[in-house]
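quick one: adenosine-5'-diphosphate bound model?
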Amino acid sequence: MIKATNIQKYFGELQVLKGVDLRIKAGEVVSIVGPSGAGKTTLLQILGTLDNQSNKKESELEINGIDVTSLKDKALAAFRNNHIGFIFQFHQLLPEFSAIENVCIPAFIKRTGKAEAETRATELLIFLGLSNRMHHRPNELSGGEQQRVAVARALINNPSIILADEPSGNLDSESADKLHQLFFQLRDEFGQTFVIVTHNEELADMADRKLTMIDGQITDQYVERSLGSPKKP
Ligand code: ADP
Ligand code: MG
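yep, here:
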């Protein structure tokens, strides 16, 4: 569950998020579309606790019932590692490590034992159709394969929430279709919540709910606020 209220973000003088309200239920797949520069990536980074809103005191951010704005660095890092998986447009795999090693990294950060992490990583890579690519390095894999490795890495700690920023932006249409089907399969099998920023209309329309972000605001969701000034529907 994600409950965000009145999220604002300034970069210097520039206000990038202008009071975003969002309610996302467990197991929901929500897509966010909108023009480049609207603030989608900034919002995702804040929802993922990788960045802070500029108005902590006048806003709320609750994830899985936890007020994440109150968490300090170490606790926040642990929270993120346990609850949230990230999938980016550019997979950001480490080039010097094999697929399975890349997938294991978040588990090692969580101090999962090597054998357990490798077992789980192997299961995930098989599930993602990469059983014969596990020991290859990223530069020996296709774009679609690399992105599936990144998905496995996002899933290894069983996060309840997956945040994806243009996950198929870099893929050919067949790989993109497969990746999109995978998201829904994961939600159906494991009940994960997905927030997906995308330019892909097909993917956006497959979601349970499609939200539009324009100029720092979500334009089509009205949330009753107990905080801040009321927002027009
Ligand atoms: P989107 O993902 O919707 O394309 P972003 O959230 O990346 O939009 O960016 C929104 C606006 O914030 C853009 O004008 C961008 O240039 C600006 N911006 C993003 N990150 C930073 C930053 N770290 N410093 C300054 N400006 C930034
Ligand atoms: Mg972006």
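The chain has a mean pLDDT of 91.
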